[in-house]
Amino acid sequence: MKLIFLTLLLSLSFMVNAQNNFKATQIKFERVEKAYSEKWETLRKFILAEGFGDQFSMVINAYKSEGKLEVWLKANTDKNYKLFRTYDFCAHSGTLGPKVVEGDGQTPEGFYYINVFNPMSKFHLSMGINYPNTIDDARTGKGRKPGSDIYIHGDCVTVGCIPLTDEKIKEVYILGVEASNAGQEKIPVNIYPFKMTNGNLKKYSKQFPDQASFWTSLQPGYLAFEKNKNQADVSEVKGKYVVK
Questions:
Q1: Cis? peptide before 132, omega within 30° of 0
Q2: Per the residue annotation, which of 90, 92, 124, 153 is the catalytic one?
Q3: What CA–CA distance (Å, rounded) separates 115 from 8?
Q4: Is the Cβ–Cβ distance between 192 and 108 less than 8 Å?
Q5: How far apart are the C-alpha atoms of 20 and 35, rounded to whole Å?
Q6: Mean pLDDT, range 235-243, rounded to an integer
Q7: N or C: which end of the chain has fewer CB within 10 A?
Q8: How sure is the predictor about 20, in pLDDT bands with cuts at 50, 70 and 90?
Q9: Contact at 8 Å (CB) between 71 and 87?
Q10: 132 — phi, psi (to 5°)?
Q11: Confidence category of residue 4, pLDDT binned at 50, 70, 90
Q12: Which positions ≥6 away from 41 have C-beta within 8 Å?
């Protein structure tokens, strides 16, 4: 029993050290260190003032038509997210509708998460998402490439990514580092074609009828977050999103 308890303590200690080491490793890079020196003091004041504390989780909701990226935070002791910041895209690529094949210039639509922090990006700082997922692969089909390397990044240029100004990506990036360092393994990134109200869904489905079925499958995730202020339980089942 003592051995089991000791093993548990060591495991917990390793997890804490791994989390703390993530920030320590990131901040060794010049651009990340500069982002912290320029942005963190002010950001942290707002974070504490709004009750998120020093340990928080993060959700990103992006809307292509509106050109908005929302950062939602919640203290790790709380149940619900609150909107913390809204940032404007500083460039756009493609049209409404998901990314299908490599080189189509489309920004993906769907439910993703951050899987890369790149402190030495060509586009100042960048956070990669796990595109393509199984839904994207199914859409692309056999014999074609769905593309890859989709990021939220700086530098105001894009061929399918979500670009912010360098000043804005500094904030989003270090918020992501802080959330990861506090123990969040996957930061959700929900990319929607538009604010998915019933009115917008009807309006845009008339303009893009081929996307109507896919967009209808995204709406439950959007509505669940709007209602509960928490990330929906989204599964990928046989090429479709299923929201529980």
A1: yes
A2: 153
A3: 27
A4: no
A5: 18
A6: 95
A7: N
A8: low
A9: yes
A10: -90, 145
A11: very low
A12: none
pLDDT digits (tens, 9 = 90+) for 167-183: 999 999 999 999 999 99
Point out the catalytic residue in the list 92, 124, 156, 161. Answer: 161
Q: What angle do CA 24, 28, 30 make, to 5 degrees?
A: 140
- What single string gives the DSSP state of each residue in the chain? -HHHHHHHHHHHHHHHHHHHHHHHHHTTSHHHHHHIIIIIHHHHHHHHHTT--SSEEEEEEEETTTTEEEEEEEETT-SS-EEEEEEE-S---S-SS---STTS-PPP-EEEEEEEEEEEETTEEEEEE--S-HHHHHHH-TTS------EEESTT--SSSEE--HHHHHHHHHHHHHHHHTT-S--EEEEESS---HHHHHHHHHH-GGGHHHHHHHHHHHHHHHHHSS---EEEETTEEEE-
Determine whether 156 is an active site residue: no
**pLDDT-derived band of residue 5, with 50, 70 and 90 as boundaries?**
very low
Q: Say whether 153 is catalytic.
A: yes
> How far is Cα of residue 189 from the mean position of the Cα atoms in its chain?
3
- Which of 109, 107, 152 minimizes the C-alpha distance to 127? 152
Higher-pLDDT residue of 18, 235: 235
Q: Which residues contact 104 (CB under 8 A, 6 or more apart)?
A: 94, 147, 160
